[in-house]
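Collaborator request, handled under Task 6.
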Amino acid sequence: MLSKYVSIGDKLDLETIEGTNDLVSNQQEGRKYYRSQVYDIVSEDQIKIAMPMEQGKIILLPVDGEYNVCFYTQTGLYQCLGRIIDRYKSDNVFVLVMELTTDLRKYQRREYYRLNCVLEMKSREVTEDDVNILNEHVRFLDTDITFNNGVMVDISGGGARFISKVRYPQGANIQFVFSLYVSGALNEYKLIGKVLLSERIENREDEYEHRIQFVNILNDDRESIIRYIFEEERKNRHRQRTNYL
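Structure tokens returned to the collaborator:
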């Protein structure tokens, strides 16, 4: 099953499992996340991955460390648990050998975790022709284009929810622009979304809540948003633990 969905070169995230023998993680910061990619597929339950790096430095993850593994593949996101059973250097590449201890499970779009947030954003309705142009990743050069201000109140790898004083009709395509700090760097996103739900907010004059689904989002943008959610969740868990103590 593994080789049917996962390919050499696919990106993956490793999330430490509480209680794992992870000598690298700072226990006061909770779980830690590492980015890597598939180096080789040994068998249906064993893979080799490139040793992760942070700020240009190799991270020597420990043998017997256990992780939640999330694969980013051509057919979607897949998750399983895995354990590092060996590590070595081959042709100047530092390699981890990982045994997958559970079966792959696909994350359906509806399973994307939604993070509550308060983020400034801008939006505008676009035509089908605009969508086709944006799908070709051509930037609009028209400086007279007007965007409407709004506030994003949750976000996931599959879509978002935002509040605006402009009501967009259900089924409309909108372009929305926002920024996220991901791994210490500010990233700007210009995405297309389809409005799934649009309704007036009770007791709030001229304010509307919209739920949108991403349309033809680039894998890199989706992965970046999911990375942001992971990082914010880690910060939230750290704050909760600190407040508890």
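The cover message to the collaborator said: "The longest strand covers residues 185-200. Confidence is low (pLDDT under 50) at residues 19-30, 138-143. Please let us know whether this matches your experimental observations."
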